[in-house]
Amino acid sequence: MSSPPPAAAAEDAAAAERPPSSQQPLPPPGPKNTAPPNTADRHRRRHGLQPPLHPLQLVGWLALAALSTGAFVVQVPALPPAFQPALTAALSAVLLVHLAAHLAAALVDPAEEELRKRRSVEVSQLDRQKHLHAIEQGRCHLCDIWVTGRRTKHCGYCNKCVAGFDHHCKWLNQCVGSRNYAPFVMCVASAMAASATVAALAVAQLVVGRTHAVLVQQDVKVGANSLSRI
């Protein structure tokens, strides 16, 4: 009887030494795909007016335009003429302050100073197999910069490190950080003031309309009584 060839005997010996399939170690996972799904959205945003615009941003603009138009065209002209110039000036001042603060909060780039000096480049997604967080030990692996403070956060919407990060505002389509926090607060305060002014005008319009209706009814009653006495 002929013996098996040496190669076959070596394979049989290796197979006998292998552990069962359930105990075999799994192969190491392959490299994670870090390519962004949409390269057009992976560039660092410099300001809130940079496309693509957020839907809430457009809704806010339309709502502000509608309320302003209604106040100037309907509410103010319905009030007594003596109050109209002062009300028009007050409402115009509030809206101008809001517009200036809104533009400042949206256009001021709150990114880290070192990042602002660079041109906008495509930012890859974070490889979770290598890093648990975008910023580790003061280094951002995505922006490739050393951050200046512990409050610096990397925003996934804007693809940049924001100094003194507070939050990402969808109404501004911009991050709010230490550089644009003051105009953001002014933007919110002026929006609340404008809303309160429009609400006050609506209440005044209702009061004036109701008072005018009561006076008309009284005049009608007086006229009817005068005719009945004739």
Automatic annotation (TrEMBL):
Keywords: Acyltransferase, Membrane, Transferase, Transmembrane, Transmembrane helix. Its main location: membrane. It catalyses: L-cysteinyl-[protein] + hexadecanoyl-CoA = S-hexadecanoyl-L-cysteinyl-[protein] + CoA. Residues 1-51 are annotated as: Disordered. GO terms for biological process: protein targeting to membrane. InterPro entries: Palmitoyltrfase_DHHC, PFA4/ZDH16/20/ERF2-like. GO terms for molecular function: protein-cysteine S-palmitoyltransferase activity. One of its GO terms (cellular component) is endoplasmic reticulum. Its EC number is 2.3.1.225. Residues 139-208 form the Palmitoyltransferase DHHC domain. It is a multi-pass membrane protein. The chain crosses the membrane at residues 53-74, 86-108, 181-208. Residues 8-24 have a biased composition (Low complexity). It is found in: Membrane. Belongs to the DHHC palmitoyltransferase family. This is Palmitoyltransferase.
